[in-house]
Specification:
heterodimer, A: about 210 residues, mainly alpha, 10 helices, globular, B: about 850 residues, alpha+beta, five-stranded antiparallel beta sheet, three-stranded antiparallel beta sheet
């Protein structure tokens, strides 16, 4: 049921991000039938891993581990020419990560309210997002939408920093601007978000 | 906020945010001006709000300053790939010929270690360079870098730590074990070259993907071009840093920096305490590695928790697996092994727990002797064979059998139905049919061998140690039998029936065993040794089943044939099978009334079995010699030759007290020794022996087991002879229990009742009389042997006391005659005296 919900929600993504989630989802379920939480975790971790490995490629150490580590799904997608460039992929991946996490939080929060949806934490995997954090993630999500309306790059910085777990330098490379610019963006945007959320940003789960 | 407004806020914020707070106000005063040139209070307010929020935010960690690369001999260092306790690792290369460059991993040893490290490294180099193994990264070069740090250059490995490799691919337990066996083989190879690794841990055990093209992946349609051929990576284990820890440790001793070089979590106890480092040290390191691969965490240093108990449902802790550029893998321990925590726990329980704990023993001498042994044991586990890490026990072998043959059972059923049953299978030719039939028969032979192992398990086992509950075992057995029933090929069916009959026999289901063995033995077989061996086994089972069913005379012939097969075409004279069959033949002859003739055979069987104790063959039963002597003693006992019986049962008892010789039959030996002691007038000693024996039997079988009741019966008899009135209450209790667990209409019940009656007779013949009547009736109502004579004698004495002297005298005369027939004249006289009847 969660899987369906995840797929429905991913309809709001652009086509490449949906492809990515779909493909990874296929990978995740091929090895078994993970519960919704395990599935979300594994999707999230895969995306993050792919993004990292991809990023490592830019540093000129593509020889190191990268080939072995990059997910088959990504190899397939990249071979299909779905991405114009590496940063295009990262943009897609970080959006997909946000989507996975937020959909998960939405399920979690609905389950907590007894909204008739399955409790997405009801499988063996530790919760991707704790029940307490679910509402914080949903607030962040809507605050990010508001931010994007006034500062598109700032919102991207948050996505890459918070959902994809990138460092400032990595965000700078992904977005093709200087580190100093990203550091300033981040500092400012983070302050604004703290105001919107009434406190710290939720910490990205460390899968 | 509009984008324009936000841009204004951003610009101003950026301008003041980096200023010290006491300088911000002036800038804000000056700059918070709207487009119309008028002071914009709202803009200033918004920026100040953000500054407050920014000040309250947690600090961002500062980025690490990059380290410039030094030069290291011929090596050009490209990038740092790792930093650890002993220094840094760089990806490096040096020119070969033309444009070719050799890649290497250059380890820069951290400052503080002594300067002559490189000199000693060069000395070691010759030894280490001799390690040529596909799974060992070679040491290429050693020297001193331009910044004065010693360096070691090794083959560059594109890989990731074995634990991360396995987790990332969600490898199951078997795949992990297969990789681990390769690690053991590499370490074992180095051990043969007298090199100990000393620092085995996941970051030194990498797995690299070796490219292999897959066959069909690219064969899809155009539309699937996204799924076009991908390199399929065959995992290749690579061990890093062989022998390097030794260099560094020596260096440690020389420089005494006091900083540990080794990773404490992976160091063996002897490394932590400064003891001798040997190949067993690597066994420990491998044990930690295996533990971590299986349980997802390292063992606690001071607490030998089994891996199966160490599994948690929590996510792999961050930092457990060294985070690579790709981040640590995610999921709980079970998920990472493509299973659930519960299943994983069950999978690890037993062998794998034991293998790990044996490798991790504190005392190096009690671990596996080397990596080869550890690897071989893991391989045995993978092959479904018994592992060394565990002492032989019945339940263990049984569990093994069940697991190993679950597939075989299904396979045998399918193969047999399809090929032998000929159900709708059109075979190309008669020759092909024959070939397939032979193949299927071979399979059945293997299956039957497996069942024999199962039979041995039941035979020597006590239920508690079986590790499988009795009902499940019975259900499985009955399923096997149902499979065998459907088979149409008589020879295959005979093989299965024969194997099953042994199991039913050992479960005490004698009638089923007898009918299965009868079918098995009735099928003519070709004179092929393996088939004849099976036949000998079926005949032995058949004879024993008939002995247990009280049809000893029908069992003599099958056993004679079995013994003849073993002595003749099978050439197994002096083997365990021979000793066993000979003993069974003797017991059958004894049961058929040919005790005198049985004694020489039993003597031979006992001596043969005792010789096998010193010089065992593969089938060796540790308990056979003591059982054979006890049986021999009981034959003398039956003949009333107590002075010959006593040394035999005594010998049996002494042997059974030897370590490892007790086995499941120990209680029988105890009982028979006590019985003879009772008969020779030493009931005190009999009771002494039986009390610990009963305790053992209760612990082993539970209080309401037939064996326990039998022992208590004999002890009550000893008490009765000693005039101890405890005999009465004891026998009442024993009989009450016996009526619950054994068929109350059998001769066995009669034996219990005779004992109860004779105890009751200590106080009251009137109470004893009806019990004797019941017992005598159960035993057949006429005097045929010593047992029935004993019952008849008791009944006679009770009748004499209570009035029916005619019947008393008649029974006493019959009993006395029976006793005289076996030479027990004294007993005969006693019986006659008890009814004051004149001697016949």
């Amino acid at each position: 049921m969660f899987v369906l919900a995840l797929m429905d929600a991913s309809a709001t993504l652009d086509a490449p991000a949906r492809d990515l989630v779909d493909t990874l989802h296929g990978e995740a379920t091929r090895t078994g039938t993970p519960g919704p939480n395990a599935l979300a975790r594994s999707l999230y971790a895969d995306l993050r891993r792919i993004a990292r490995a991809h990023r490592a490629g830019w540093h000129g150490n593509a020889t190191l581990n990268t080939t072995a580590l990059v997910h088959e799904a990504y190899l397939r997608l990249s071979a299909s020419g779905a991405y114009k460039s590496g940063d295009h992929f990262l943009n897609v991946a970080s959006r997909a990560m946000r989507q996975v996490l937020i959909n998960y939080a939405r399920q979690r929060s609905a389950a907590k309210r007894g909204g008739g949806l399955p409790d997405v934490a009801l499988d063996d995997a530790p919760a991707l997002v704790s029940a307490d954090q679910a509402s914080a993630w949903l607030e962040l999500d809507s605050a990010l939408d508001r931010l994007a309306a006034m500062d598109a790059r700032g919102a991207r910085v948050v996505e890459l920093k918070v959902f994809a777990g990138f460092e400032v330098a990595e965000v700078a490379e992904a977005l093709g601007v200087s580190e100093a610019t990203i550091a300033r963006d981040w500092r400012r945007v983070r302050a604004w978000l703290r105001g919107e959320l009434g406190g710290d940003l939720p910490r990205a789960p460390d899968p | 906020m509009s984008p324009d407004r936000w841009r204004q806020v951003s610009d101003l914020f950026d301008r003041v945010a980096d200023l010290p707070s006491n300088e911000r106000a002036a800038v804000l005063d000056r700059e918070a001006i709207g487009q119309d040139g008028v002071t914009d209070g709202a803009l200033r307010e918004e920026v100040e709000r953000l500054l407050v929020l920014d000040a309250a935010a947690p600090a961002e960690p500062a980025a690490a300053a990059p380290t410039p690369a030094p030069d290291a001999g011929p090596w050009t260092l490209h990038e740092r790939v790792a930093r650890g306790g002993m220094g840094e690792v760089w990806r490096a290369s040096r020119p070969l010929s033309g444009d070719l460059r050799q890649m290497a991993a250059v380890k820069l040893v951290r400052p503080g270690l002594s300067a002559d490290l490189d000199a000693r490294a060069r000395a070691e180099h010759r030894i280490l360079a001799g390690l040529e193994h596909p799974a060992i990264a070679r040491l290429l070069d050693a020297g001193t870098a331009s910044d004065g740090r010693p360096y070691l250059a090794t083959e560059f490995v594109h890989g990731e730590p074995i634990t991360a490799f396995c987790d990332r691919r969600r490898l199951g337990v078997n795949e992990r074990l297969a990789l681990f066996v390769e690690v053991c083989e590499a370490v074992a190879y180095a051990h043969t070259r007298l090199v100990v690794h000393r620092d085995l841990k996941p970051s030194n055990v990498l797995v690299a993907g070796v490219s292999e093209r897959s066959e069909d992946r690219g064969s899809g349609s155009e539309g699937e071009s996204a799924h076009s051929p991908l390199p399929v990576l065959r995992p290749q284990v690579k061990l890093l840093d062989f022998g390097i820890a030794k260099l560094l440790e020596e260096d440690e001793a020389l420089t005494r920096t006091g900083r540990p070089v080794l990773t404490p979590a992976y160091a063996a106890p002897e490394q932590r305490t400064g003891g001798d480092v040997t190949t067993a040290t690597d066994v420990y390191g491998l044990g930690v590695l295996l533990y971590e691969l299986l349980a997802g965490r390292r063992p606690d240093a001071d607490d030998a928790t089994r891996p199966s108990e160490a599994i948690t449902t929590a996510a792999t802790e961050a930092g457990r697996v060294p985070p690579g550029p790709d981040g640590p893998p995610t999921g709980d321990t079970g998920t990472l092994r493509s299973t659930t925590a519960d299943r994983l726990r069950r999978r690890l329980r037993g062998d794998l727990d034991r293998i790990c704990l044996k490798a991790l023993r504190d005392d190096p001498a009690r671990r596996y002797r080397g990596a080869a042994e550890l690897g071989a044991d893991v391989q045995r586990h993978l092959d479904g064979l018994p592992v060394e890490a565990r002492p032989e026990s019945v339940g263990y072998r049984l569990g093994k059998f069940v697991r190993r043959n679950r597939v075989a059972v299904a396979a045998a059923a399918v193969a047999l139905l399809a090929v032998l049953g000929g159900a709708g299978v059109a075979l190309a030719s008669a020759a092909e049919a024959d070939r397939q039939r032979e193949a299927a028969l071979a399979e059945v032979g293997n299956f039957a061998d497996g069942l024999d192992a199962f039979a041995v398990a039941f035979q020597t086992g006590d239920p508690d140690q079986m590790g499988i509950d009795a009902q499940a075992a019975q259900a499985m057995l009955d399923r096997f039998r149902a499979t065998a029933d459907t088979m149409r090929n008589p020879r295959a069916q005979a093989a299965l029936f024969g194997a099953l009959s042994t199991i039913y026999l050992n479960r005490g289901q004698f009638a089923t065993a007898e009918s299965l063995a009868t079918v098995a033995a009735s099928v003519p077989v070709p004179a092929v040794p393996s088939v004849l061996g099976q036949r000998a086994s079926h005949l032995t089972t058949l004879g024993t089943a008939r002995l247990m069913l009280g049809r000893a005379e029908d069992g003599v012939e099958p056993l004679r044939e079995a013994v003849a097969l073993l002595e003749g075409p099978l050439g197994q004279r002096g083997s365990t099978m021979h000793a066993y069959a000979l003993g069974e033949l003797a017991k059958l002859m004894n049961g058929a009334g040919q005790t005198e003739e049985a004694i020489p055979l039993m003597t031979r069987a006992a001596e043969m079995a005792r010789a096998l104790d010193a010089n065992p063959d593969p089938d060796h039963y540790t308990w056979l010699s003591s059982r054979a002597y006890a049986d021999l003693g009981m034959m003398y006992y039956k003949l009333g030759r107590m002075q010959e019986a006593l040394p035999m049962v005594e010998r049996a008892y002494v042997i059974s007290e030897e370590p490892g010789r007790g086995g499941g039959g120990k209680t029988v030996v105890d009982r028979q020794y006590a019985q003879v002691l009772n008969a020779v007038g030493d009931p005190q000693r009999a009771a002494e022996i039986l009390t610990p024996s009963i305790e053992r039997a209760v612990a082993q079988y539970g209080p309401d087991h037939y064996t326990v009741l039998g022992l208590r019966r004999i002890r009550a008899g000893a008490w009765k002879r000693m005039g101890d009135r405890r005999a009465i209450s004891e026998m009442r209790e024993v009989v009450a229990e016996a009526r619950r667990i054994i068929d109350p209409t059998t001769g066995q019940m009669g034996v219990f009742l005779v004992s109860l009656a004779s105890a009751e007779a200590m106080e009251s013949s009137a109470r004893a009389l009806p019990i004797y009547e019941e017992a005598f009736a159960l035993l057949g109502g006429e005097v045929t042997n010593v047992s029935t004579a004993t019952a008849a004698a008791g009944l006679a004495a009770a009748l004499a006391q209570t009035g029916d002297s005619d019947r008393a005298r008649r029974l006493a005369r019959e009993a006395a005659a029976a006793f005289r027939e076996v030479g027990r004249d004294e007993r005969a006289d006693e019986v006659l005296a008890s009814v004051r009847a004149p001697a016949p």
